[in-house]
Amino acid sequence: MAAFPVNADYTESYREPLLRVQGLNKRYARSGFWSKTKPVQALSDVSLEIQSGSTTAIVGESGSGKTTLAMCMAQLETPDSGDIWLKSQRLTGLAAADLLPIRQKVQLIFQSSASALNPRLSAIEIVAEPLDILGMVRRERRRELALEYMQLTGLTADLAGHSPLTLSGGQRQRLAIARALTLKPELLIFDESFSGLDLILEAQILELLRTLKTSCGFTYLVITHDLSLVAGLADYVAVMQSGKIVEQGLASRVFLHAQHPHTLALLAAMPRWTIGSNAGSGA
Amino acid sequence: MNLNVQLRTGLAVLAVLHLMLLFPGFVAPYDPMEQDRTMSFASPTVVHLRDQNGSWHMRPFIYAVAVNQDGSYTEDTRQKHFFRAFPSGAPYKLFGLFHCTVHLFGVDGGRAILMGTDRYGRDQFSRLIYGGQVSLFAGLLAALLSLFLGAFVGAVSGFYGRWIDDGLMRLAELFLALPWLYLLFAVRAFLPLSVPPASTFFLVVLIIGLVGWVRPARLVRGVVLSAKEQKYVLAARGFGASDLHLLRRHILPHTYSVLLTQATLLVPQFVLAEVTLSFLGLGVAEPIPSWGNMLSSLQQYHVMISYWWMFLPGIALGVLFLNYFTVADALQTKVQSAST
Amino acid sequence: MRFLLARLTRSVFLLAGVSVLSFLLMQLAPGDFFEEIKLNPQISPQTIAALRSQFGLDRPLPVRYGLWLQSAARGDFGYSFAYNSPVAPLLKTRVRNTAFLAGVATAIAWVLALGIGLWSAVRAGHWDDRFCTGAMSISMAVPDVLVALALLLLATRTGVFPVGGMVSTDFDDFTFLQKAKDIGAHLALPVFALVFGLAPTLARHVRSSVAQALTAPCVQAARAHGIAPARILFRHVLPVAANPLISLFGISLATLLSVSLLIEVIMSWPGLGPFFLEAILARDVYVVIGTVLLSTVFLVAGNLIADGLLFAADPRIRKS
Description:
By secondary structure, chain B is an alpha+beta fold. Chain B is 59% helix and 13% strand. Chain B has 13 helices and 6 strands.
């Protein structure tokens, strides 16, 4: 298959992308002198653009490299080679101190909210932590601000003192989102954040995301293996397999006119349900 | 036994023991160094409530002790000495700073030697209290040193990983490979044998503490390694948190329970190490009392078979250990059930 | 196989490291100790001169270390000034005595520990388990100093057992059987003291390992299959529980020389302990270093054997 040039069928007027990755490579070598396992090529010449204000989805199966890509974008991992640009600023090769203001602009929401939140801290402490670290706001103001963000994501004020252990899965995800919002990011990356939620909760969180997007103008990157989620949410889709992007473009095109065999396989595996008929693939 | 009951009783007894050892001057009725060569190896004086006429008294009392021709001791029932609470007695320094003369209890006239005397006629009960202070403090300080050192090494090793971790863990293995009791003795051997008594205490603490850092280090390293992998640590990195912030806020709090259980295990071990060293003449030196050097007189045949009260510091040790182990057990079970 | 090789190389490095440490420690002793010996009229100036050149005291540090290492490798551990003889033969008898005492005591302690620990774990919660656990806790709290002294007191009061030492004064005149009996009688109390100190901790570990193994899924499955309890115990539970216990056994082997130090001193058993202590008090440097090195060798060897046993016993380690 020929390599897809970025945005081959992008019909809107060209705007500068918010985030751009070019030719990313990452290999995980298993450490250990006596180890027998082979190194894993997590990313293989990956190039992608995220348009400002859009919702992009990256789909693929486990091990396809989606999470590694997300981590590289959020500056939580460094790629072996390739470049990352945020607007017109080159991120790769920046010193840690210069990277600090950049970090705020791109935030990652993890899959498991339970492990992403320190169980020994209370909800409000968790949300206020980025403010503490960056010291942007006066100390007295931090808790107020944290409370505001909590309420923005739909959490009530009485939950402030609770440990995340006593919160439900949906509330934890909201908390994680509230925490990310305190940094006023431009790009929010959701790494399989909806996998652990039941459908009703998922719908609620998605509603929250839509509201936030309309009111604050965030750009979203959603990593998922669930194509049905993508269908209702994404403007752009990129499909990954074994560390490579095999197909990307407008969501409508990818869904209706998929070309790569892997995409077709994923689409075929999507369960399609019609009320009254037997469950299973094939409508 | 119910876990909480076990924990509470153990802690209560330990608290009493430790308090006694914070205020040795107050609890002990006499000066531990005060000698009375006429009363060498006197057996403990019996406390009476009822005199030989059969009448009961409100306050407990003792009879005066008469020294016989052959050197044995008998009670002189003609003279009674009554106990008194909070009397004014031999001066001592509270915490080494304030001059005090008030003691917990005392006897009007006469001398109540509750645990007998040693060769020099020194009150063994007072020496037990003061000696306990020395032995217990040695154990506590050494444990603190070990824990601190171990926690530091473990945290650095676990957090920074790679070659720092490798190097430090090889060093740890080296220390583990050395038989620590022998190492203790050997190190002690190569330092000047005749060291002023006050310095022997710190010497002992230093050696014991320096040798024992390995196990806390390994445990802390394990905790740090697993805490480091938590997503919330990664998330905090995403906010731009510094290493120090990560350690302080997210990683180190996990080590506290481990360190606490380690403390309850290390303290008795180190107290025993000090006692062993002092028993063999390599630790705290005379005339400063320590439970170790108090027991060493038992190595003499005639002392061992005739003067049973000289065994009492050993029993005190046993009581101390029993309670430490009880608390350690209960804590470990609690920590285990909390983490599952 | 790789596992064992890794362990072996590590042990070699460990020994090297310890030898360096011991050597450096030796250098700490203030002053040239040969000065002290010169004052000792028993040692001839020729001996001193010979020792001086052998250990090259006027040569730089690394050279000295090399020479010392060479001698040590040949089995020449230096010279004891207190005994006026080379260290190695002195160590040999002492090590033999200590290993004998500690070996017997360790074996008995393990048998007891396995029995009590197993029984306790199987009967967990019942009165006999609680009694055992309680007894173990109390016996663990009693310091060995007290045990040894109390036993000596008992010996003198009752006269059943000899008070200290390894052999009676007319040992050389005994027949073989009498000799065996004599040593046995002298052995009894030190062994009892040692076992009293070792067994409770071991029993606790056995108990907790077995208790944990009893809850393992493979054991539950065996129970569900209706296999007889005794068979489950020996074929399913023990192998699972064995892993930490084998490591523990390795530690028992490793500390064979050092565990009985105090008991030997108190009960006058002519082993490594009293010898070491005397050497310390007499500043007999080479004896001290030689003893530390020897105990370390035992320790490392013991751990290596334990690793080997683990390798043989646990298929998971073989696989990795």
